[in-house]
Amino acid sequence: MLSFIKGNISKTIRRYFYYLVVLNLLYIIFLILVSPLRYYSPLMPYDLRIEQSKYNDLQIATYINNFPERITGKILVSRQGSFSYYAKQKYLSVEDPKMIEFYDSKTTDQAKNILMSLGITHFISADYPTPPTYNSFLPKLLSDLNFATLEHRVGGYSFYSFNYKDPDKNFTKYRLSDEWTISNELIGGQSFLLNNDSNQGEILSYDNSNNTKPIWITEGVSRLSYSYEVPTRKKEQNINMHSYALDGEVIINGVVEIYAIIFDQNGIILRKEDVWKGVAKNRKVSIGGQFLVAPNNSYKLAFKVNRRSNIKLVNLDISSSELNKKISTEVLTRNFAYITEEFYTLKGANSSFSIMKSINGSSYPKIEIKNISGYGGLVATINSNCDNEFIQPDYSRISFLPKFIINIINDAKKRLSREYLSYFINSSEPQDLTLDFKKNLKIKDSNVCIFDIRLHGTSERKNSDIKFTDILINGEKL
Amino acid sequence: MSFTEQLFDLLIFLLTLIPFVLIAKLLFRISIDNKKILELSLPVALIMGPIFLSILLELVMRYFPKENNLFYLLSIPIIGTLLVVFLLFYCYKKKFLQGWQSKKIRSIISNSSKKEDVLFIMLLITMIAVFLATFFGILIQNDPLEYAKTGQTIYHLKDLTHYPFVDTNFSDGYYGPWTHGLGYINFWVWSYFLAEYDGMTNSARFISYYYLVALIILLINISTVFLNQRFIGVLAAIFLCSTPVFINGVTGSHIDIIRIALLFNSLVLFYFYLQKPSLKLLLFISLSVGLALYTHSINILLFPFIAILWLIHERKITLLMIKHGFIFLFFSLIFVMPGYIINMKIFGNPVADSGAVPVWNLPNLHYDEWFFIRRELGNQFDRLFYGLLKGLSKPDWFGLSYYLLIVAFYFYISGNLKKLGNESYLLTKYLLKIILIFFSFVIITYSLGHDIFIKNYRYQMTLQPFIALFSAVILYKFIPKEKTEC
Q: Which of B173, B242, B370 sits opposite A91 (nearest CB)?
């Protein structure tokens, strides 16, 4: 054996084998250490790491934990693991046998009644397709603007609330565009008009079964949120969002996803919303889901037809209503954080203030803390719902680079833009502190962004505290 | 929770495991006569010991439910320590402790080349990196979160009457319909008891890492004692650590590492039984198999594995085999029988997979399609390529392990097996048999149209330590070394 390998050749094989093993290990070490760093800063304390985590399911659990008073009943959850462990609300899994009655229901009214009798007031979808969201009455209920309201969305995790009272919203119906473009990527790349070779009865169909890559089918015309309105054109400016609901049926073979791509006035893509996902084997399934569009913004619908999948859209209705929800300033306290008339006080580890404020401006707000005194660590973080905007910065100068390198640069840029400021307060004399968030993201002046500013006390000592008299955001008192 | 608190919690957690590791070590001493096999006592005890804690915690909670925390906190270590004292006394009386000293630890550096040292240091760096990734990570994967939540629920209830949690009225809304014993879950319960803090306790997060270390010590000990070459174990450990899906399981605190370690442990011990059958060793193996079953239902595979290996080895059915077979079955099922009876009542089956969730069986929800298409088993090509051959088609999951296996297999069938030496030859033959038996299960079920073995990548992960050791032995022996020409 191996008698042909002699002298130098044997040495060469040995050397290459050795290099291969070393390289393999280096790759693994890189993978182990680098991959978690994409999602959180490792040096944060454990609890804060969970709160600040970039995992979508954790973010939605943290969001819900911040508003416990808003949730009266149970939340129907698609992904039980992370929700049950990290959120502190009552819940019911979509796989719980109690739900069988719901899946067996014959009408939407019956389905609603069963949900009501189970005490379910909210629903969270998962960022992957789950059978109840396309095979039961759930999509029908989610597409009913009078019954379901989209409260918050992080990636594919959509948080809906249910309203069992009488309908109170007026909604308008829209028609679908009849021009669609098809492309290998959602944005960029070569796009061309879809040859409409579908039958008369079908709105759109595409066979991607021989392809090994997903295909994006996007509505041809980007439209302003009011442009397709049937009765009248509403042109008045307001900051109320419009919520849009999709209701329809589609025959799919494989995996198909629907996104709403949101554009600003200048036609720049702001974000894409994960509306619906379905998996089936040559079968008709129901579409249902909502997305929010700010005034002056516009949207396109996009179908992502995964590899070896095909789609035949049977019908799709879009309806919209104005969302009467304005977010004013809110200050939430956690653990040993108190607000009195004189002072804001943070006592012990993990106590925090969370300030939610909508701000209309071109950059991140300037935050000042007045008359701060006491002893202990103070950590400040800032996040906004506009953080995910500008997902496609201008890379024309480096567009010759492969896509994955651009993605790495993009990721690194996003990572660096997250900021986490920490201070150590050790003074009995009151001083002023300016939080210097040097975020490199600029926000377009047309946008109203909701900011979540958090101040955490990190002192391990229970009896030490930090006090301050005021928080000023852009010079404005809270 | 600060880093110091986390480290302190972890230290306390590990300290409480010590009596149980000692119990396993002493039981091993009592069961084994062969001095060479006794060299494996440390890793074997590290792998089996902690499960005794789970069993004891289950017993205490079943017989004394709803006591206060202090009761459980004190009773577990006290009973554990008493058992150690009793076993020590027994061993002392029977003179088992005499002459039980480990061989001098051979220096790795003295008889290894520079390159081998570099690889050993890299293995250490990898282990440190994996520890840091676990330490600085958070619990995020779905299955560990569900087990952790189950642990949290049991900690709150302090009662096992309603486990498995199929009726959410008794589990605070949590739905966890699986048929596994409490082997892994009780680590979580125990870590909650130790921390007395129902928030984000995390000492049980490290249990998978602990099992990785134990598995690596076992691999290195096997190669040192039986192949007289410590470096083969290091190489096998490196192959194991360079399987992304395996390390991902470790940093994510998955149950799989624990079940795989117990399965590997049982089959390694069975190898020694086949070499020289002894009833005492068989009883110890049935204990190991029992613990494996108690941790994860899929370890029921050990029965067909052991039966086939036994038949292939003996080539006939003897009276001794039948007698030993019955004893083996009886003692290995003793721990899991109560759990299996409960499962029969709840699920109608002692071990259930998808049948355990009634919602999955509703025809209008089409969960069957969902499983096939989502797991890339939608058509025949995908079933073959991503199902059966996923070890080769998914290097981002299985790394180079299956390619290495193919190279090693080529060397094995085309090479001069005398070159291996007797011990290596027997061991690699045994490992190859296990790998082939597993794949024959896979291929038979696949060609009958079932997807049970190919639908979940974690089932295929079961083979990883066997593949790592097999490839390491063969490649080490056949890749020519410096100053030696073949």
A: B173
Interface test with B, best of A50, A55, A60, A84 (most B CBs within 10 A): A84
Mean pLDDT score across all residues of chain B: 87
A298-305 and A223-224 as β-strands: parallel, antiparallel, unpaired?
Answer: antiparallel
- For residues B452 and B303, membership in a common domain is answered with no
CA separation for the pair A7, A5 (Å, rounded):
7
CA angle B116/B122/B126 to nearest 5° reads 145
Per the prediction, chain A carries an average pLDDT of 76
What is the residue range of B326's domain?
Answer: 3-101+129-341
- Interface predicted TM-score of the whole assembly (ipTM), two decimals: 0.88
Q: What element of type H or E holds B204?
A: none
Looking at the complex, does the CB of residue A17 fall below 8 Å from at least one CB of chain B? yes
Contact between chains at B366 and A95 (C-beta distance less than 8 A): no
* Average pLDDT estimate for A262-266: 74
Per the listing, tokens 């409409």 go with A196
* CB-based contact, A405 to chain B, within 8 Å: no
Rounded CA separation B23/B31 (Å): 12
Q: Do A42 and B136 touch (CB under 8 A)?
A: yes
Q: Is the whole model's pTM more than 0.90, yes or no?
A: no
Kindly state whether A76 is in contact with chain B, defined as any CB-CB distance less than 8 angstroms. no
Query: Which residues partner with B442 through β-bridges?
Result: none
The verdict on B363 touching A (C-beta cutoff 8 Å) is no
Surface of A (323-382) touching B: CB under 8 A: 349
- Residue B395 pLDDT exceeds 60: yes
Say if the Cβ atoms of A1 and B416 lie within 8 Å: yes
| Residue B468 within any structural domain of the chain | yes
Domains in chain A, start-ordered, CATH in brackets? Answer: 172-322 (2.60.120), 330-477 (2.60.120.260)
* Chain A residue with Cα closest to B357: A95
Residue A125 Cα to chain centre, angstroms: 11
The yes-or-no verdict on residue B376 having pLDDT over 90 is no
